[in-house]
């Protein structure tokens, strides 16, 4: 048996998240069906983390055990011929038997994208949350600063979370703004959050709160007060899923 590790990129628009769910179309189901077709084996795929319905991944990491003798350098090409156009695997390699894509991950980065201005980008409509009016990005940046470090993120976590602890460390929180598109008269704002782990809906709740800061409904300083409150009701709404992408996962 070999433990194979791969990177998976996907447009999550048509899927009910990564993890297998009864009677639902998920990324894991599609990957496992492709592996069954390729190897004849019933293979369980492990991921670096679950993404919700409509959420995308630039760099999801998976691993699985197989008895197949297919050379590792042929796995990606073989699997990609069996996968739909909105899922792609890359970077296949053999890893130690004790490697676990979720437990071994030490750092993850998510990106949330908002498009502001007169018109949405029709080609990126599944990847960006459209906000028709300008946002105060300087205030949003200032609000992001309060998230850096180790905090109890209860206020930025869904009440449906089952985690025993809501303490997480955010290593970096930054924002990038694209230049104004002269045709669309709009621009994209990218919020990047890097940490040792994220709670259920944490990034989307942060994004929803920052949008309110950008709208002037909250001050940048209120982000600290929200953290201190440790109460989900203190934060803003959960931003739409299609603006979120799992950007990068790092290992030791």
TrEMBL record:
<feature type="domain" description="Pseudouridine synthase I TruA alpha/beta">
    <location>
        <begin position="146"/>
        <end position="251"/>
    </location>
</feature>
<feature type="domain" description="Pseudouridine synthase I TruA alpha/beta">
    <location>
        <begin position="8"/>
        <end position="101"/>
    </location>
</feature>
<protein>
    <recommendedName>
        <fullName>tRNA pseudouridine synthase A</fullName>
        <ecNumber>5.4.99.12</ecNumber>
    </recommendedName>
</protein>
<comment type="similarity">
    <text>Belongs to the tRNA pseudouridine synthase TruA family.</text>
</comment>
<feature type="binding site">
    <location>
        <position position="110"/>
    </location>
    <ligand>
        <name>substrate</name>
    </ligand>
</feature>
<dbReference type="InterPro" id="IPR020097">
    <property type="entry name" value="PsdUridine_synth_TruA_a/b_dom"/>
</dbReference>
<dbReference type="GO" id="GO:0003723">
    <property type="term" value="F:RNA binding"/>
</dbReference>
<comment type="function">
    <text>Formation of pseudouridine at positions 38, 39 and 40 in the anticodon stem and loop of transfer RNAs.</text>
</comment>
<feature type="active site" description="Nucleophile">
    <location>
        <position position="52"/>
    </location>
</feature>
<keyword id="KW-0819">tRNA processing</keyword>
<comment type="subunit">
    <text>Homodimer.</text>
</comment>
<dbReference type="InterPro" id="IPR020094">
    <property type="entry name" value="TruA/RsuA/RluB/E/F_N"/>
</dbReference>
<dbReference type="GO" id="GO:0160147">
    <property type="term" value="F:tRNA pseudouridine(38-40) synthase activity"/>
</dbReference>
<dbReference type="GO" id="GO:0031119">
    <property type="term" value="P:tRNA pseudouridine synthesis"/>
</dbReference>
<keyword id="KW-0413">Isomerase</keyword>
<dbReference type="Pfam" id="PF01416">
    <property type="entry name" value="PseudoU_synth_1"/>
</dbReference>
<dbReference type="InterPro" id="IPR020095">
    <property type="entry name" value="PsdUridine_synth_TruA_C"/>
</dbReference>
<dbReference type="InterPro" id="IPR020103">
    <property type="entry name" value="PsdUridine_synth_cat_dom_sf"/>
</dbReference>
<dbReference type="InterPro" id="IPR001406">
    <property type="entry name" value="PsdUridine_synth_TruA"/>
</dbReference>
């Amino acid at each position: 048996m070999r433990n194979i590790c791969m990177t998976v990129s996907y447009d999550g628009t048509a899927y009910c998240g990564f993890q297998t769910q009864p009677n639902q179309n998920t990324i894991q189901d599609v990957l496992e069906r492709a592996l069954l077709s390729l190897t004849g084996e019933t293979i369980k795929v492990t991921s670096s983390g679950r993404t919700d319905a409509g959420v995308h991944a630039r760099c999801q990491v998976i691993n699985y055990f197989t008895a197949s003798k297919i050379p590792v350098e042929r796995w990606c090409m073989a699997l990609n011929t069996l996968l739909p156009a909105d899922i792609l695997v890359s970077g296949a390699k053999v890893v130690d038997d004790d490697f676990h894509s979720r437990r071994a991950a030490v750092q993850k980065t998510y990106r949330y994208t908002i498009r502001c201005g007169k018109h949405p980008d029709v080609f990126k409509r599944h990847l960006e949350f459209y906000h028709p009016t300008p946002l105060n990005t300087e205030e949003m940046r200032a609000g992001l600063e309060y998230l850096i470090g180790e905090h109890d993120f209860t206020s930025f976590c869904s009440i449906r979370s089952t985690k025993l602890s809501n303490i997480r460390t955010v290593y970096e929180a930054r924002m990038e703004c694209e230049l104004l598109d002269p045709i669309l008269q709009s621009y994209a704002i990218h919020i990047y959050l890097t940490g040792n782990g994220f709670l259920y809906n944490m990034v989307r709740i942060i994004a929803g709160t920052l949008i309110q800061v950008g709208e002037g409904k909250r001050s940048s300083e209120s982000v600290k007060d929200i953290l201190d409150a440790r109460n989900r009701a203190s934060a803003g709404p959960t931003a739409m899923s299609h603006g979120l992408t799992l950007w990068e996962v790092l290992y030791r």
